[in-house]
Design brief:
This protein is mainly alpha-helical. It has one domain (13-465). It has helices spanning 2-11, 14-46, 49-86, 89-116, 118-124, 132-144, 146-161, 165-187, 195-218, 237-271, 276-313, 317-344, 346-351, 359-371, 376-392, 395-421, 423-452, 462-465. Helix 2 (14-46) packs antiparallel against helix 11, helix 11 packs parallel to helix 14 and helix 15 packs antiparallel against helix 16. The longest helix is centred in the N-terminal third of the chain and has 38 residues, at 49-86. It is globular, with a radius of gyration of 21 Å.
Length: 466
C-alpha cells in the first residue's frame, strides 16, 4: 500500500495525481467552509441579523482554532512528505506523533484559559452589551470542540501527505453534513428551539464525529502514519521546533485574519453611520461567503503540497516545477470564476442572509461584493507560494509571504482608508491587500520557477538549519 502511494506521488502523470489529490481536498475545503456558512444562514433565518453579528464576534476565536490545527497539520505533513520521499520511516513516525501530542497540549491549555476568561476575550474581539450574551452562548461550545477539531485538522493534513486524500475528504464531509442536518433541528422553534446555542452544539457534535472518523482511519494498517500510542506523550522538542517553524506561516496567514476581524469590528463600532451591529453582521456574511468561495482554491493547493514535498525529498525537481506551474494555472482560472460570481450575483447572495430583506443590510453587502473580488484576480500567487515554501521547508520565505497580506498591507491600509472613506474603506482595503500581496508573490513565483528549471537546485534544508 505504501509503495503504491510512493509511486503515485513520484511517477504518475502530474495532472492526474494533482486532481486525484486536489478533488478530495477541494471537496473537504468546501465542507469545512460550510461549517460557518450554514450556522450563519440558519441563524439569519431563525434568529435574525443580530445573531450573525454575534457569530462575527466569535469568528476570531474560531479562526485561531483553525490556525492552530493547521500549523501542526501543515508543519508535520511537510516533514512527513519529505521523509516519505526519502523513505525515512523514523522521521515519518516522529513527525506524526509529535504533532498529535503538542497540538493536544496547546489546545487543552487554550480551552481552559478561554473558559475562564470568556467575557474578557469577547469584549476584546469587539462584543458589546447588545450581542455579548449571544456570543457567549455560541463560544462556549466552540471552546469545548477545540481539542477534537484541531486534532482532526492535524490528521487530515497528514492523511493527504501520505496520499490518502479521500480520508480527509470523508472526515470533513461527515462533519459538514452532520452540521447541516443538526443545525435546523437545534435552532428553529419547530425543533429544540435553542437558537444560537443550538448552532454551536450542532457544530460541536459534528466536529467530534469528524475527529472520530479520521482517527480510526489513521490507526488502520493501510495508513503509513504509524501512530504510536506509547510515544504520544514524549517531549520531542527538536521535532516540535521544526514543525512550528514550518507551520508558523500557515498559523500567521490564518491567525492574522483573527486580528483583522478584531480590527474591523472595532473600526465598524467607531465609523458606522448607523447601527454598528448591522454593519458587523454584513461583514460576517461577506467574510463567510468569501471564505466559502476561496477555500476550494486552497483545496487545489493542498493537493499540490504532498506532490511538491515528496518530489523534493526524492530529488525530482523538474517534476516539482511542473506541479507548481500547472497548479497555478488552474488556481488563477478558479479565482477569476469566484470573483465573477461574487460580482455578478452580489444582490441575491446577500439577500439570502436577510430575514426581513432589510434594504440597508442588502445595500451594504452589495457594496462589499462589488469591491472585494477585485483582488482575487492575482491572489492565486499568494496561495501558491506560501504553500510551496512550506512544502519545501523554506520557513523564512513562507513567513514573509504569509505576513504580506494581512499584517504588512491590510492592517496599515485599513487604518488609513477607513477614517477617509468610512466603511467603504474596509472593503477597498481587502481588494488592495489581496492585489499587492499577490503581486509580491508573483515576483517570488517567477524567481523560484527559474531556480527549479536549472540542473542543480540549491539545498533548501539549509534555511531550516540556519
Amino acid at each position: 500500500m505504501h509503495t503504491t502511494q510512493s509511486a503515485m506521488l513520484g511517477q504518475m502523470d502530474v495532472k492526474k495525481v494533482l486532481f486525484k489529490l486536489a478533488i478530495p481536498a477541494t471537496i473537504a475545503m468546501i465542507a469545512n467552509a460550510l461549517y460557518n456558512l450554514v450556522d450563519t444562514l440558519f441563524l439569519a433565518w431563525g434568529v435574525g441579523e443580530i445573531a450573525i453579528g454575534a457569530l462575527t464576534i466569535v469568528l476570531p476565536f474560531q479562526t485561531l482554532i483553525f490556525a492552530l490545527g493547521l500549523m501542526f497539520g501543515m508543519g508535520s505533513s511537510s516533514i512527513f512528505s519529505r521523509a516519505f520521499g526519502r523513505g525515512d520511516k523514523a522521521a515519518m513516525k516522529r513527525a506524526v506523533n509529535s504533532a498529535l501530542f503538542f497540538n493536544g497540549l496547546f489546545a487543552a491549555i487554550l480551552t481552559v484559559v478561554s473558559l475562564i476568561y470568556m467575557d474578557e476575550i469577547l469584549y476584546i474581539f469587539g462584543a458589546s452589551e447588545v450581542n455579548i450574551e449571544y456570543a457567549k452562548d455560541y463560544m462556549f461550545w466552540i471552546v469545548l470542540s477545540l481539542v477534537p477539531f484541531t486534532s482532526a485538522l492535524v490528521l487530515n493534513n497528514l492523511a493527504r501527505a501520505e496520499g490518502r486524500a479521500n480520508i480527509s475528504m470523508i472526515s470533513l464531509l461527515i462533519g459538514s453534513l452532520l452540521n447541516v442536518f443538526l443545525d435546523p433541528l437545534f435552532i428553529f422553534d419547530w425543533g429544540l428551539g435553542l437558537g444560537v446555542s443550538g448552532a454551536a452544539i450542532a457544530t460541536f457534535i459534528a466536529k467530534v464525529a469528524m475527529f472520530t472518523y479520521v482517527l480510526i482511519a489513521s490507526l488502520s494498517p493501510k495508513s503509513a502514519l504509524m501512530i504510536d500510542k506509547s510515544s504520544l506523550y514524549q517531549f520531542d522538542l527538536p521535532m516540535l521546533k521544526e514543525t512550528i517553524v514550518i507551520g508558523l506561516p500557515t498559523f500567521l496567514r490564518n491567525g492574522l485574519m483573527a486580528f483583522v476581524v478584531i480590527a474591523i469590528n472595532h473600526l465598524v463600532n467607531q465609523y458606522a453611520p448607523t447601527d454598528p451591529g448591522l454593519y458587523i453582521a454584513v461583514f460576517g456574511v461577506v467574510n463567510r461567503l468569501s471564505a466559502f468561495l476561496l477555500l476550494p482554491g486552497f483545496g487545489l493547493v493542498q493537493g499540490m503540497i504532498p506532490i511538491v514535498g515528496f518530489n523534493y525529498g526524492a530529488g525530482k525537481y523538474h517534476r516539482l516545477r511542473d506541479t507548481i506551474i500547472i497548479t497555478t494555472r488552474y488556481l488563477m482560472i478558479y479565482f477569476f470564476i469566484a470573483a465573477a460570481i461574487m460580482f455578478i450575483f452580489a444582490r441575491p447572495l446577500i439577500m439570502i442572509f436577510s430575514k426581513n430583506s432589510d434594504p440597508l443590510f442588502i445595500s451594504i453587502g452589495m457594496d462589499a461584493f462589488k469591491i472585494i473580488p477585485i483582488g482575487f484576480l492575482i491572489l492565486a500567487f499568494q496561495f501558491i507560494m506560501s504553500s510551496v515554501y512550506q512544502a519545501l521547508g523554506y520557513p523564512v520565505r513562507a513567513f514573509v509571504i504569509a505576513l504580506s497580506r494581512q499584517l504588512l498591507i491590510f492592517l496599515p491600509v485599513v487604518y488609513i482608508l477607513t477614517p477617509i472613506f468610512g466603511i467603504m474603506g474596509i472593503w477597498m482595503t481587502f481588494a488592495i491587500s489581496d492585489g499587492l500581496s499577490g503581486f509580491i508573490s508573483w515576483i517570488a513565483y517567477r524567481y523560484e520557477i527559474k531556480q527549479f528549471s536549472k540542473e542543480n537546485v540549491p539545498d533548501l534544508t539549509l534555511e531550516i538549519e540556519s
